[in-house]
Each structure stands twice: as structure tokens, then as C-alpha cells.
Amino acid sequence: MPSKAVVLLSGGLDSATTLAIARAEGFDAYALSFRYGQRHASEIEFAARVARAMGAARHVTLAIDLRAFGGSALTSDVPVPKHDRAEEIGEDIPITYVPARNTIFLSFALAYAEVTGANDIFIGVNALDYSGYPDCRPEYLAAFERMAALATRAGVEGQPVRLHAPLLELTKADIIRRGLALGVDYALTRSCYDPLAHGVSCGRCEACLLRLRGFAQAGVRDPAPYAA
């Protein structure tokens, strides 16, 4: 019987690739998405498409409204920064950072893993072609895994959850190549922080620019639609 794994799934390029990797490693994938008050809530629709196409055993979407806190361009009326080129993205933590988002998401994933009997959690964070978020770093992931071993019944009973971040040290181009090799249909994914109607990406937010640069470096056309 295949082992179970909880896979955090946003509907974007990275999380779709992570789901494909979990499936390729033989896991029954229990996909978990969040409707957290994000302005790009259309990503939930794409997450559902990806989960169906890639054979997730189950896909759960939780509603938690982080707009009550704000503090991010993704959960408030603060404009999403736009650029003409990926090279214009600064090194400071951007306003699109959602405070403690990955900690919140991983905590729910930890609870879901205990309930489903999963000993593994997959998350598609990346520490190379990313926006500088503090909760995408390897030291953060290692600390969360240590905490999880202390905070759960499974951990206390000697079966701590393993946290997998298979994209952590890959460039965006390498992620795309890995996903294509595993059969990921990137037309089902979107990565935009400020999308237009009908799933059209803006093409100028940091998420769009990093994605577009990745496809260009991989020598592959991005199948997502972009504003002219």
C-alpha cells in the first residue's frame, strides 16, 4: 500500500511540480489548498485542476481569512509592485510577503497529516529564484520539522513527520524541466499575484516575471496567458 503525503498546493508552477514529484516517489497525495483572503484567489480553481489532472487522492481547500490582519499586498488594498524585468526585483523582503503564511499553512498540513496517517509533507518552496521570503529558507524548514517532532502525537510516539522541499535548491528553469519530465501540464497552472479576469496573468508582478524568466531560460514557451 502506498504511503500517504500531504502536499501543499497553490495552483502555481512550483506546487504543481512538487505534487508531481510526490506522486513520482510513490506517495498517495493529499493535496491541501487555502483560500486565505488572497487577491489572487483564482489560484484555487487552478489548484483543483492540477489536483484532478495529477491524480491526487484527495484535495481539501480550507478557508482562513488573513485579510483580518492585512500587512501584505496580497491580503490588503496595498498595490502589488510591478516591474518590467525580473532583474528589477529588489533584495529586500517585498510587500507581497504574507506574515507567517508558510508557518500557518504547514501547521494545518501537520494536523491533516496526523488525521490521515501521513508521515510526509511536501512544500514547493524555493531558495534560489524566489522573492526573498524568510519562510522559504532551509533553516526555517529544518526548524519547523524539529518543532513538528515535539508538537504531535506521531512525533512523541517515534514517527515524526518528514518535511520535503524538493525544489529548494533548484532554479526556476530546473523546476520547469523537472516538471515537464514528469508530465506536468503547466497550462493548468498560474503564478500571478494580480491576475486579470478569466485567469489572465498580469505579466509584471514578481511572480509572473520569475516564472517567465524560468521558462525562457528553460527554452520552453510558457503556456499561461498574459496581458498584452
Within the CATH hierarchy, at the fold level, what is the topology?
Answer: Rossmann fold
Question: Which term fits the overall shape?
Answer: globular
Terminal-residue CA separation:
48 Å
Number of strands: 5
Radius of gyration: 17 Å
* Main structural class: alpha/beta
Structure description:
The protein has helices at 13-24, 43-53, 101-116, 138-151, 153-156, 172-181, 206-218; strands at 4-8, 28-35, 58-63, 120-122, 162-164. With 228 residues, it is α/β, with parallel strands linked by helices. It has a single domain (4-78, 99-190), classed as Rossmann fold (3-Layer(aba) Sandwich). Strands 3-2-1-4-5 form a 5-stranded parallel sheet, sandwiched between helices. Strand 1, helix 1 (13-24) and strand 2 (28-35) form a beta-alpha-beta unit. The longest helix is centred in the middle third of the chain and has 16 residues, at 101-116. The mean pLDDT is 94.
